[in-house]
Write a structure and sequence with these properties.
CATH architecture of the largest domain: Alpha-Beta Complex
CATH superfamily of the largest domain: UDP-N-acetylenolpyruvoylglucosamine reductase, C-terminal domain
Largest sheet: 5 strands, antiparallel
Helix content: 10-25%
Order of helices and strands: EEHEEEEEHEHEEEEEEHHEEHEEHEEEHE
Oligomer: single chain
CATH topology of the largest domain: Uridine Diphospho-n-acetylenolpyruvylglucosamine Reductase, domain 1
CATH class of the largest domain: Alpha Beta
Number of strands: 22
Number of domains: 3
Radius of gyration: 20 Å
Distance between the termini: 24 Å
Length: 339
């Protein structure tokens, strides 16, 4: 296994921002993952596991430990179950499943990143989330240094959350994911954008729905396209906040034209972060130095060309403060911050 020193991390992220990793390696097998862990421990280094770099903002100083890029590959099908290695490209797997006429993840097409990151964030979009299809995950437990299988019921899935990014953060490395998909399923068209897209069209199949999602994402600058400035981002930068009905009523009372909302667990209310950001005065194309907001999607903070991490942090903080002042809501960033 090759351990390299002082490797720039910006090229490994969709933001194209960040300083170097003190050490860097790529794992193509479970054995490589274990070797990397042992290498980091032998040198007293912190360890960070890198997937597609699509939900990551690296500091300008970089990372003083070992960055382990997951390059494990392989897709195996058994009945309706798909066993997928953590390093597989997520959108590639969606295309593979849809091509076999299996549904359950068609609305998650076009999301950048790798399979291993999907259970960590409980990735979701356009009315679907991976928790609906995950049967289990294979993980390296860093306490026992053994590869173990974990059932979905033990993963603590919630909105953009799992034990892997909350209560057990840093304990497990996901090496593979098992999905239970549905043959000949009808595509999920519950999301408003998809309903509008197909309102005057014939009922779509799974492939048509997945392609529609990609087209919608591209229109919002949320599909990674080389040369598109709006794509130098980490996708949606803020999570949709969940508030009490009383808090929602106070906001609605001050906005007679209406406040978009969605039901949330425990009788709470989910608000679109994009609406909150716009209403707080941060419009598409808003710029603060070399950082800015996408010209096509309010939630995407972008690198306008030569941004540093500190530029994105400054814009983040200004937006958070503006939304909190206007609505009494503290927006929570979605990307992982490294360094």
């Amino acid at each position: 296994m090759d351990f390299r020193e002082n490797v720039p991390l910006a090229p490994y992220t969709t933001f194209r921002i960040g300083g170097p990793a003190r050490w860097f390696a790529e794992a193509s097998s479970d054995e490589d993952v274990l070797e990397a862990v042992q290498f980091a421990r032998s040198k007293g280094l912190p360890l960070f596991v890198l997937g597609g770099g699509s939900n990551l903002l690296v500091s300008d100083e970089g990372f003083p430990g070992l960055v382990l890029r997951m390059a494990l590959r392989g897709i195996r099908k058994s009945g309706d179950k798909f066993y997928v290695a953590a390093g597989e490209d997520w959108d590639g797997f969606v295309s593979h499943a849809v091509g076999l006429n299996y549904g359950g993840i068609e609305c998650l097409a076009g999301i950048p990143g790798t399979v291993g990151g999907t259970p960590v964030q409980n990735v979701g979009a356009y009315g679907q989330e991976v928790a609906d299809t995950i049967l289990g995950v294979s993980v390296l437990d860093l306490e026992t240094l053994t590869i173990e299988g974990m059932q979905a019921s033990n993963c603590g899935f919630a909105y953009r959350r799992s034990i892997f990014n909350s209560t057990e953060r840093g304990r497990y490395i996901v090496t593979a994911v098992v999905y239970n998909l549905h043959l000949d399923a009808k595509p999920s068209l519950s999301y408003a954008d998809l309903k509008r897209y197909f309102q005057d069209k014939q009922a779509p199949g799974l492939a048509e729905a997945a392609n529609a999602v990609r087209e919608i994402r591209r229109g919002k600058g949320m599909l990674i396209v080389e040369g598109d400035a709006d794509c130098r981002s980490a996708g949606s930068f803020f999570k949709n906040p969940v508030v009490t009905p009383e808090h929602y009523a106070r906001i609605a009372a001050n906005n007679p034209s209406g406040v978009p909302s969605y039901p949330a667990p425990e009788e709470q209310v989910k608000l679109p972060a994009a609406w909150l950001v716009e209403q707080a005065g941060f419009h598409k194309g808003y710029a603060l130095g070399e950082a800015g907001i996408s010209s096509r999607h309010t939630l995407a903070l972008i690198n306008r060309g030569h941004a540093r991490a500190v530029d994105v942090f400054a814009l983040r903080d200004r937006i958070i403060a503006g939304v909190e002042e206007k609505f009494g809501i503290h927006l929570e960033p979605e990307p992982v911050l490294l360094g």
